[in-house]
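User: Hello, can you help with two protein structures?

Assistant: Certainly.
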Amino acid sequence: MAHGLSSGWFQWGDERFEFQDAPTYAEKNWGGSFPQKWFWIQCNSFDDHPDLTLTAGGGTRELPILPGSPEEDVAMIGVHCDGQFYEFVPWAGEVDWVVSPWGTWVMHGMNKDFEVFLEGTAAPDDGVVLRAPTIKNGLVPFCKDTFSGRIRLRLVNRRSSQTVIDAESGTGGLEVGGGPWWDTWAAKAAMKEPLRSLVRLPIDVSKAVDFVPEGLRPFVAPPGL
């Protein structure tokens, strides 16, 4: 859910916090663990843009279905605004990034019609270490997040060179996780074949798994499916 509105309350110690129509984001993470290394950017509370939401991230993942379990760096950027969805993914365009161990997130994406530029920043003393799922050690402190990051998003129409969106926020979600994060991570998404072609096919994965012999399903079905 990229952008919703929630009402309710939560309790912290002896204090109760109530909220009404608060901007809300929720996601489903597939798989048995988070990637080896990753970063994440999210915001649905941009200044003067109540219908704008951003979800972006990238990571190093294993490909267990291919011989030797190779790794690849992948990333995506999704922008919802005024009923339109702008998607930037490695199988239908380009995505690259420069992300520091903490403090700076820069992403760029391009498809045949649009180009997007993202920049996120966080103070050195900002952020909280959180737990994340790992294959070997279960749920352990494995990432660092802030929800008071500065984010700027700029979307440009490649045909007309006109700026479609130029927005900023001081309440963005920024995260780095896994590792090692010895230095700034600069990379370009490179999705390997045959997955690059397979993801373009109109396949319902949950129904496709039904055709796999029951004894083999645990080896091919994504955890949580």
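That covers the first. Now for the second protein you mentioned:
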Amino acid sequence: PAPLCQAHRRPTQHHHPFLIIGLRPAGHFSCVCGSIMSEKTVLCFGDSNTWGQVPGSQDRYPYGVRWPGRLQALLGEEYRVVEDGLSGRTTLHDDVTGPADGAYSCNGRPQLNTALHAHKPLHAVVLFLGVNDLKQPGVSPGRVAYANQILVQDIRRAAVGKDGQPPRIVLVAPVAVVETPTNLAWGFGGTAGPSREVPAALQQTAAAVGVGCFDLSQQAVASPLDGVHIDANGHAALASGIAGILKTPA
């Protein structure tokens, strides 16, 4: 059913000029009465699993299969889901072993700040980062969690929520890496064990700083085709989990 504004709980015959010509302002949606209401924008910021890489290939899942697209369908017209996924992206490291090969930066921290201001005001930010951090020398699961905490602090300081308030924040704990010849070539050697410890570290950090956390490792596994990326079922599970969190009052 079409969403209703606060002033109207049943359809009326009133119309808004934007509806008459079939348009609506960006960042808004329409009540059945014709009034224009602000959308709740959700920024999904992550790596290749947010970009939607098909396991075992360089292809990309269609929008309706990728978890941000599925999330949009689950949340409905009241929300606008923005996907910002980049292959090889880390929390705050320069990934020297990543797929960019110098073509672009994999450091998520400065990119996140740009994305926050590009899409504000934001209702929520979902961070799905950390696996690529483990490729960096000396990065432990605890350091992955701490790096996510730094990004949480950056988001709060940016004050990009409604009326300058911080948006809601949800961390995603990734699936464990399964070492394969494919991901060994991507620099994931030695990351399988540490990756299994990341979810607990992220959950502890999320609780400490007062943000949400969805443990994807309890709902999905990395595809055996490359041992890093989730399949279509994994995308569906992630979208469902995030939708459940966002629909629950903070």
